[in-house]
Amino acid sequence: MRHQRHIERHQLPYYLKVFNSVTDKPMGYLGNVSLDGLLMISQLPMLVGGRFDMRLKIPGQDGKLQFIDFSGTCQWCREDVTPGSFDSGFSLVAPPAEYVELVDALRRYFSFRRQVESV
Q: Where in this chain does the record put each PilZ domain (predicted)?
């Protein structure tokens, strides 16, 4: 029986590009994120079991790009419902604090939580 993971993820299709941190070439787009991993949508299939050095380029408050570098191991890869696209699931190897902060910021931004008014 196949083990299914249940991790809270936040969908982000085609907004944030993922780059190879060594070559700075685009790898794909973030599909969703969690504290332990991510889903990447790419035009080429990823090598399952391969470890990849990745980079996210996030706009900073000062207008400059902030780089978030991390490593991930591809756990699975399959063809996306969109022809010519592939979905790949990555587990992250010791994600840096900046990645954790990004996941938290995205969770806050995309969550629909009722604001409690203070009296």
A: 4-95
Q: Structural domain boundaries of the chain?
A: 10-110
Please state, in angstroms and rounded to a whole number, the distance separating the CA atoms of residues 103 and 99: 6
Alpha carbon separation from 82 to 3, 19, 42, 43, 45 (Å, rounded): 26, 21, 11, 10, 13
Please state the CATH superfamily assignment of the domain spanning residues 10-110 in this structure.
predicted glycosyltransferase like domains (2.40.10.220)
Within the chain, where are the H helices?
97-110
In the numeric block, which tokens belong to residue 104? 């938290």
User: pTM here?
Assistant: 0.77
Chain Cα centroid distance, residue 109: 15
What is the reported pLDDT for 40?
A: 95
CB neighbour list of residue 19: distance below 8 Å, 6 or more residues apart: 25, 26, 27, 54, 55, 56, 57
